[in-house]
C-alpha cells in the first residue's frame, strides 16, 4: 500500500511538471467523456421518461384486441381484475386506463387537452409520486366522491403560475360534447362538471397511453358519469390494462396466466416498457449514444497516442529503473496509475462540461413536443446514471489506454532504451502504432461528420420553416366556430368582432384572419390543396394542353398581406370592397403566374380552381414559401389568396403582428372569450415557435449529431497536431543536418506536411468505408434519412484534410526554423 501511495505521488508530480501535456490530455478525454454523459442524459429524457417518474419494471400491458377501437367494458375489466387477483398470485396491482380529449376551461382559458381516464391503483401500478398533493385513488372511484383531477407540471406552471396553493382550492371545468341531427338541424349537447385539483404530476411525467403529452388524469367513474349525460355509450370502457407483478416473477408464466384469465376478452400482453416507449425516440436515442461512443473512442485514441509519445520520451527513465532492479510489474503499475489520474481528472472535467452542455441544450430546446402544442419540458438534468457513465467511461479509458501504453513502455529492452536515451536510438520506432491511432481518430471524425451531415441535411429540408416572410413578430390563435354550431352569418359576425377586438389591444400593430398559414405544415395549419387552371378563351377547362399547377388556396382578410409582411409585386392586394356577392377576385403568387402565363401580364387573367368557380387575378404576391426546386409544378410557393368575405371558412386562424408576440397571446385569448366563452381555442402561441414545435426533437437530434461531429473533428485535429509535434521534436537533429547541407525551409515544411497528409489519407479511406456502412445502418433505423445526398461525401473528406493540414502546419513551421548550429552541436 505504501508503494502504491508513493507511486501515486510520483505520478502526480510528473503530470504537474508537464502542465501543457496534462491539460491537453485531460481536455481531450474529458470532451469524449462529456459527450457520452450528455448522450446518456438525453437518452434517458427522450426514451426512459416516463421511466424516471413511472416505474415500468415488472409492469405488463394488456390491450384488448376484440374491439381495438374501444376496448372492454367496465364489467369486463372488473371480471379480469377479479380473475387475476384470485388465480394469479404474482399479480400485485391491476389498473385500467384510456386516453380522451376534453375541453378544459378556467376563468380566462378554454382549450382541448389530452387526458387519461384511470381506475383505482393506477398510481400504485407505476409507483407514481406526485409533485404536490396526491394521485387519483380508489376513494375517487366511490359513487359519492366529488370530481377530482390531477394536472401535469406543464398545466400547473402555465395555467396556475406554479402556485402550490392550488391543491384542493383550484378548480377546472371539464366538458364533453356530442353532435346529432334532428329534423335536418344539427344540435350539440355539452355537459360540464367542475373538478377540484387534487395533485400535480411529477415534472417530466407525460402519461403512458398516448403519443400526445397528457395534461390531466381523472377517475374512470367521474368521466363515465360526465360522458353518460351526453349519450356516451362507451364512457366506462377501458382501452388498456396495466399489471404490476411481484419482483422476480417469471414473465412468460405471468403472460400465459394473464392471457388465460382474459381469454374471453381477447387481449395481447407485452411488457409495459415495450408498449409505452416510442420507437422513434428509441432509435434516435440509440443513434446518439452510438455516435457519442465513437467520440469517446477517438478521444481514447488521442490520449493513447499522447501517452505513447510520452512513454517513448521517458524510455531512458524506464531503462534506468529496470537496470537498478525495479520489476516490470512496478514500472507497469506506475504507468497505469498515471493514466488513472488523468482519467479521474478527465471524468471530473467531462462531468462539468456535460452539465453545462445539458443546460445549454435545455435552453436551446426547452420543449421537445409531439404533434400538438401541449408543452411538457424534457428534464435532461444529470442524475446518478449520468455520473456513473462519466466515471465508468473514465475508468474504461484509464484501463485500456494505461494498459496499452504501459505494456509498450515496459517491453522496450533496457540496453536499447539507454542507447535511445543518449540520442542514437531510432526516432521512427513505433511509427506504425502512432499512425494507426491517428487513423482511428480520423475514421471516427469522418464517420460522425458524414452521418451528422446526412441527418442534418435531411431534416433541415423536411422540417425547417421554409418561409419568405418574417414570423418572429406574429402571434396566432386557431379556432373553429363550427364546434359551437355557428351558422355562416353568426360565424362571420364573430370573426368581425374578434378581429376588431384584437386590433384594439395594446401592442397589436395589425391583425388579419386566414383559414391557414403558409408554411405551417409542422403545425397542421396549411390552407387547402387545389388545382389552379388558367382559363383560356375558347378552350374548355380540362382540355389537353391547358395550363395548370397544383397549389393551395387560402381565404384571407384584406390586411393579411401587411400583417405577415408578404409583398405585392404586381397589381393590387385584396380590398375591403371585395365582398360577398361581388365579382370573385384573387391574388396569385409569383410561381403560379410564371407557370400559367409565362412572359405575360397575369393581371386581369382568370383562373378556375378545383374548389370554386372562375376567379379574376387582381394581384401577384411574392412566394410565401420556398423549396429546393422552386420550378416544380407543385412547388410550395403556389398559392391563391381569395377574400375571406367571398369564401367564408368556419375554421380560421387569427394572426396578429406585435412587438412581443408571446406576451400578446394571453390578451388575444381573453378578447376572443369575451365575445363567446364557449369558443374553444384549439391552439395559440407565437407563430415562430409554433411552426418549429413539431420538428423540435428532430432539430435537437440534428444539432446534437452536428455537435458530436464537430467534437470529433476537433479531437482528430488535436491528434494530428500532437503526433506531428512529437515527430518533429524527435527529428530536430535530422532537420538541422538537412538545413546545414543546403535544404530549404520550404522543403522541410513540405516533408512534414506530406507526412501529415499520408497520415490523414490512411484514416480517411477506412473512415469513408465505415461511414458508408454506418449510413446504411442509419437508413435502417431512420428510413427518412436521404441516401441521395452526395455533398457530405465530398465536402467532409476535403474539410478533414484541410483541418488536419492546418493542425500540422505549426509543427511544420517549427521544423523549418530549427537552428542548424544547435542541431550539429548536439550530435
From the structure above, extract its key features.
4 domains, 827 residues, 6-stranded mixed β-barrel, 24 helices, 6-stranded mixed beta barrel
Helix content: 40-55%
Taking strands numbered 1, 2, ... along the chain, how are they ordered across the largest sheet? 2-3-8-5-7-6
User: What is the global morphology?
Assistant: flat
Determine the strand fraction and express it as a percent band: 15-25%
- The radius of gyration over CA amounts to 34 Å
- Residue ranges: pLDDT <50 for 5 or more in a row? 367-377, 421-429, 628-634
Tell how many strands the DSSP assignment holds.
21
Arithmetic mean of pLDDT: 77
Structural class, by secondary structure, is alpha+beta
Write down the domain tally. 4
Q: Sketch the major β-sheet.
A: 6 strands, mixed, barrel
The end-to-end distance, rounded to whole angstroms, is 44 Å
Number of helices: 24
Written account of the structure:
The chain contains 24 helices and 21 strands. It is α+β, with helices and mostly antiparallel strands and 827 residues long. The protein has 4 domains: 1-48 and 280-425, no CATH class; 59-276, no CATH class; 441-464 and 697-827, no CATH class; 474-693, no CATH class. The strands form 3 sheets. The protein has a 6-stranded mixed β-barrel. A 6-stranded mixed β-barrel has the order 13-14-19-16-18-17. Strands 12-20-11-21 form a 4-stranded antiparallel sheet.
Amino acid at each position: 500500500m505504501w508503494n502504491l501511495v508513493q507511486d501515486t505521488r510520483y505520478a502526480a508530480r510528473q503530470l504537474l511538471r508537464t502542465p501543457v501535456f496534462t491539460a491537453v490530455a485531460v481536455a481531450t478525454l474529458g470532451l469524449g467523456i462529456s459527450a457520452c454523459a450528455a448522450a446518456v442524459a438525453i437518452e434517458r429524457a427522450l426514451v426512459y421518461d416516463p421511466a424516471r417518474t413511472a416505474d415500468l419494471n415488472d409492469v405488463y400491458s394488456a390491450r384488448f384486441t376484440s374491439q381495438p377501437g374501444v376496448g372492454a367494458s367496465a364489467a369486463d375489466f372488473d371480471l379480469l381484475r377479479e380473475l387475476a387477483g384470485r388465480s394469479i398470485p404474482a399479480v400485485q396491482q391491476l389498473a385500467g386506463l384510456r386516453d380522451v380529449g376534453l375541453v378544459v376551461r378556467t376563468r380566462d382559458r378554454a382549450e382541448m387537452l389530452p387526458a387519461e381516464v384511470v381506475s383505482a391503483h393506477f398510481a400504485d401500478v407505476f409507483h407514481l409520486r406526485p409533485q404536490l398533493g396526491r394521485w387519483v385513488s380508489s376513494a375517487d372511484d366511490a359513487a359519492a366522491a366529488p370530481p377530482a383531477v390531477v394536472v401535469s407540471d406543464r398545466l400547473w406552471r402555465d395555467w396556475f403560475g406554479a402556485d402550490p396553493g392550488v391543491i384542493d382550492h383550484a378548480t377546472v371545468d371539464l366538458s364533453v360534447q356530442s353532435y346529432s341531427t334532428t329534423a335536418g338541424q344539427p344540435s350539440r349537447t355539452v355537459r360540464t362538471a367542475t373538478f377540484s385539483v387534487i395533485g400535480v404530476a411529477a415534472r417530466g411525467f407525460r402519461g403512458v397511453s398516448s403519443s400526445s403529452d397528457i395534461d390531466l388524469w381523472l377517475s374512470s367513474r367521474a368521466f363515465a358519469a360526465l360522458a353518460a349525460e351526453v349519450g356516451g355509450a362507451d364512457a366506462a370502457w377501458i382501452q388498456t390494462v396495466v399489471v404490476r407483478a411481484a419482483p422476480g416473477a417469471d414473465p412468460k408464466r405471468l403472460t400465459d396466466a394473464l392471457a388465460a384469465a382474459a381469454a374471453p376478452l381477447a387481449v395481447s400482453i407485452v411488457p409495459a416498457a415495450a408498449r409505452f416507449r416510442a420507437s422513434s425516440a428509441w432509435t434516435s436515442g440509440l443513434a446518439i449514444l452510438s455516435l457519442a461512443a465513437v467520440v469517446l473512442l477517438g478521444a481514447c485514441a488521442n490520449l493513447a497516442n499522447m501517452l505513447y509519445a510520452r512513454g517513448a520520451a521517458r524510455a531512458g527513465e524506464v531503462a534506468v529503473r529496470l537496470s537498478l532492479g525495479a520489476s516490470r510489474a512496478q514500472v507497469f503499475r506506475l504507468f497505469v496509475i498515471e493514466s488513472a489520474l488523468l482519467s479521474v481528472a478527465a471524468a471530473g472535467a467531462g462531468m462539468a462540461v456535460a452539465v453545462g452542455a445539458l443546460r445549454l441544450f435545455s435552453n436551446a430546446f426547452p420543449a421537445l413536443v409531439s404533434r400538438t402544442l401541449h408543452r411538457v419540458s424534457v428534464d435532461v438534468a444529470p442524475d446518478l446514471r449520468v455520473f456513473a457513465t462519466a466515471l465508468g467511461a473514465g475508468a474504461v479509458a484509464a484501463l485500456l489506454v494505461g494498459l496499452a501504453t504501459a505494456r509498450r513502455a515496459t517491453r522496450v529492452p533496457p540496453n536499447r532504451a539507454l542507447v535511445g536515451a543518449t540520442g542514437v536510438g531510432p526516432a521512427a520506432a513505433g511509427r506504425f502504432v502512432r499512425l494507426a491511432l491517428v487513423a482511428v481518430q480520423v475514421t471516427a471524425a469522418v464517420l460522425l461528420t458524414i452521418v451528422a451531415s446526412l441527418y442534418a441535411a435531411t431534416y433541415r429540408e423536411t422540417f425547417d420553416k421554409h418561409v419568405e416572410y418574417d414570423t418572429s413578430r406574429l402571434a396566432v390563435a386557431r379556432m373553429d366556430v363550427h364546434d359551437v354550431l355557428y351558422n355562416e352569418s353568426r360565424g362571420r359576425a364573430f370573426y368581425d368582432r374578434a378581429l376588431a377586438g384584437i386590433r384594439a389591444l395594446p401592442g397589436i400593430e395589425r391583425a388579419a384572419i386566414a383559414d391557414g398559414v403558409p408554411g405551417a405544415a409542422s403545425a397542421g395549419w396549411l390552407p387547402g390543396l387545389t388545382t389552379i387552371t388558367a382559363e383560356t378563351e375558347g378552350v374548355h377547362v380540362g382540355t389537353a394542353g391547358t395550363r395548370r399547377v397544383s397549389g393551395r388556396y387560402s381565404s384571407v382578410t384584406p390586411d393579411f398581406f401587411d400583417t405577415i409582411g408578404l409583398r405585392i409585386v404586381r397589381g393590387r392586394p385584396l380590398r375591403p370592397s371585395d365582398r360577398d356577392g361581388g365579382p370573385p377576385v384573387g391574388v396569385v403568387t409569383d410561381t403560379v403566374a410564371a407557370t400559367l402565363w409565362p412572359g405575360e401580364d397575369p393581371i386581369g387573367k382568370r383562373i378556375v380552381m378545383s374548389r370554386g368557380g372562375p376567379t379574376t387575378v387582381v394581384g401577384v404576391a411574392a412566394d410565401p414559401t420556398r423549396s429546393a426546386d422552386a420550378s416544380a409544378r407543385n412547388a410550395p410557393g403556389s398559392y391563391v389568396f381569395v377574400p375571406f368575405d367571398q369564401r367564408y371558412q368556419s375554421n380560421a386562424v387569427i394572426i396578429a403582428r406585435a412587438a412581443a408576440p408571446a406576451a400578446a397571446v394571453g390578451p388575444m385569448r381573453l378578447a376572443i372569450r369575451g365575445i363567446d366563452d364557449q369558443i374553444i381555442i384549439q391552439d395559440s402561441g407565437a407563430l415562430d415557435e409554433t411552426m418549429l414545435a413539431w420538428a423540435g426533437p428532430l432539430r435537437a437530434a440534428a444539432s446534437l449529431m452536428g455537435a458530436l461531429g464537430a467534437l470529433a473533428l476537433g479531437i482528430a485535429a488535436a491528434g494530428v497536431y500532437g503526433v506531428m509535434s512529437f515527430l518533429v521534436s524527435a527529428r530536430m537533429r535530422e532537420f538541422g543536418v538537412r538545413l546545414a547541407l543546403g535544404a530549404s525551409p520550404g522543403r522541410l515544411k513540405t516533408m512534414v506536411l506530406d507526412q501529415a497528409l499520408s497520415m490523414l489519407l490512411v484514416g480517411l479511406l477506412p473512415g469513408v468505408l465505415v461511414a458508408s456502412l454506418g449510413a446504411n445502418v442509419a437508413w435502417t433505423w431512420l428510413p427518412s434519412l436521404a441516401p441521395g445526398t452526395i455533398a457530405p461525401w465530398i465536402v467532409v473528406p476535403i474539410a478533414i484534410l484541410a483541418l488536419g493540414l492546418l493542425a500540422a502546419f505549426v509543427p511544420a513551421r517549427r521544423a523549418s526554423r530549427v537552428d542548424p548550429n544547435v542541431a550539429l552541436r548536439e550530435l
